[in-house]
Design goal:
Blueprint: E1 14-15, H1 34-54, E2 58-65, E3 68-79, E4 84-85, E5 91-95, H2 98-111, H3 121-124, H4 141-145, H5 163-166, H6 170-178, H7 194-208, H8 212-224, E6 230-231, H9 235-238, H10 268-271, E7 273-276, H11 277-291, H12 301-307, E8 322-326, E9 329-338, E10 343-350, E11 355-361, H13 368-385, E12 401-404, E13 411-417, E14 420-426, H14 431-434, E15 436-442, E16 445-449, E17 455-463, E18 469-473, E19 476-480
Antiparallel strand pairs: 1-3, 2-3, 2-11, 3-4, 5-7, 6-7, 8-9, 9-10, 10-11, 12-13, 12-19, 13-14, 14-15, 15-16, 16-17, 17-18, 18-19
Helix pairs in contact: 1-13, 2-7, 2-8
């Protein structure tokens, strides 16, 4: 039985170059075909419309196919005041995507024989005994990894709009965690918990005998070559490469407000990492190598598959990884959102198609989920349908561009598509699903065709006496905008 395509709801450059590229990152051959070029243009047009209509400051995206970065680009600005352009190497807060790295550290220590997933948390943190804990059946490390430990999301007194309370120093965190109470009996229901992953960071430090940040840097990030993934980045050292985070767009009027950097303190293992789209691309390529049995330096194939297997049924959750799906395809990853620092991020990976996407945005209300999944679907279709002999020019490209009118209900983007043209009305929830495909009839006359190729309404392109290009459909005329 086919599963439904995952629901996507949208509220609504900078190309990969030598300055940002990692060594050996060369596009795969299919990126040279017309189909791939048209698909990336469709994707970019749609992303730019999301940025414009949602008033997002900036965005960076990277797409990986097995061991190739096939697409990487920045949109908008990493800092509004300085008009610094975002690039694929811009560094953003990735928030709860941090949990993947904390989980990997725990699994690595498990594989080294230094702990077991069914160890009670108190075996490694003797001070941890929250109110409501059954002495005979205490929460385990496995429970914390899959968010079934019965813990609240955060310890007492935490307010997300006050980072001083959200990110306590270690001594204060231990005191507050010690005084916390279980929200539910452990192993009875899923309850997402930043507190749980902060405790796992304490377990990593206790078991390894070194500070959590040092352990992750030495045993995970450095071996993966993820130099731009870090905790508490220095704006003075990174300069314009570090994005400025922004609060939500005011609903009525006014600009977004820049938010200050704030050290994550003891909550770093749950949400304190910063990274770039290119670094997350390296993370994806490593996972594909592990799953192919070609890289066991950090963890082995069996361990990564265990982390990406359903460990709790509703919602489906692994060990450090969220489980998603599109149709019959299983995907793994994590999302991140930091309202206090103004960042959103999403990472998804599909072992079957060997395709992964990382998206990062410097706005606290950004739709990171649909941005990542739409990017995945557009790129997946581009790779499936790419041919080797499609480089002939499109003779109708003279009609492409943005069309609008003063009283129009929407804007239209006319794009090259499969040797002809297509119209994308923006804002659109999904560019592939919203795309109106056109077939040439004669002169400037085209007809929209459905999935079976049956003709529909007419679109007529032409110019006026001043050379302005117009598009007529029914009794409407939109004119191509000059940018």
């Amino acid at each position: 039985m086919k599963r439904p395509i995952i629901a996507l709801v949208i509220t609504m450059g900078f190309a990969l170059g030598p300055a940002w590229a990692h060594a050996g990152d060369q596009p795969a051959v299919q990126t040279e075909t017309r189909k791939f070029r048209e698909s990336t243009q469709l994707l970019e047009t749609w992303i730019e419309s999301v940025i414009d209509f949602d008033r997002l400051p900036g965005l960076s995206v990277a797409v990986v196919h097995d061991q190739d970065i096939i697409y990487a680009k920045g949109f908008g600005h990493s800092d509004i005041a300085s008009k610094q352009e975002a690039g694929p190497g811009t560094i953003y807060g990735i928030c709860s995507m941090s949990k993947m790295f904390t989980a990997l550290a725990v699994m690595q220590l498990r594989d080294a024989g230094k702990l077991e997933l069914d160890d009670p948390v108190s075996r490694h943190l003797p001070w941890f005994a929250p109110e409501g804990t059954d002495a005979d059946q205490p929460p385990t490390l496995r429970d914390l990894l899959r968010h079934t430990g019965g813990l609240p999301c955060e310890p007492d007194l935490v307010l997300w709009d006050d980072p001083r309370q959200l990110f306590p120093a270690r001594d204060e965190f231990i005191d507050r965690a010690r005084r916390s109470a279980l929200s539910y009996p452990f192993n009875t229901r899923f309850n997402y918990s930043n507190l749980g992953y902060s405790l796992l960071g304490e377990v990593v430090a206790a078991v390894s005998g070194m500070p959590y940040e040092d352990y992750v840097r030495r045993h995970l990030l450095d071996p993966l070559g993820m130099k731009d993934t870090m905790l508490s980045p220095s704006r003075q050292r990174l300069g314009s490469r570090l994005a400025t985070g922004y609060g939500r767009a005011p609903r009525r009027q006014g600009p977004r407000v820049a938010l200050a950097d704030f050290p994550p303190g003891a909550f770093a293992p749950a949400g304190g990492y910063y990274s770039s789209a290119l670094d997350m691309a390296a993370f994806a390529k490593w996972q594909f190598r592990v799953l192919d049995g070609k890289d066991d330096r950090i963890i082995g194939r069996q361990t990564l598959e265990e982390m990406q297997t359903v460990q709790w049924p509703s919602p489906k959750w692994g060990l450090g990884f969220t489980l998603y799906w599109i149709g019959d395809l299983d995907l793994y990853g994590h999302q991140g959102g930091c309202s206090h620092s103004g960042f959103k991020a999403q990472f998804i990976l599909c072992p079957e198609e060997k395709l992964a996407v990382a998206v990062m945005i410097n706005a606290s209300d950004a739709p990171q989920f649909p941005l990542a999944f739409v990017t995945y679907q557009v790129m997946s279709e581009a790779l499936k349908n790419a041919g080797e002999d499609e480089n002939e020019p499109n003779e109708w490209s003279r009609y492409t561009g943005t069309y609008t009118a003063d009283r129009a209900w929407s804007e239209a983007e006319v794009l090259e598509w499969e040797g002809s043209l297509a119209v994308l009305w923006v804002p659109a929830q999904h560019p592939l699903q919203s795309l109106a495909r056109l077939r040439h009839v004669e002169g400037g006359v085209f007809r929209q065709v459905d999935a079976e190729g049956e003709p529909g309404k007419h679109f007529v392109f032409g110019t006026d006496g001043a050379g302005n290009v117009g598009m007529k459909f029914y009794n409407n005329v939109l004119w191509r905008a000059r940018r």
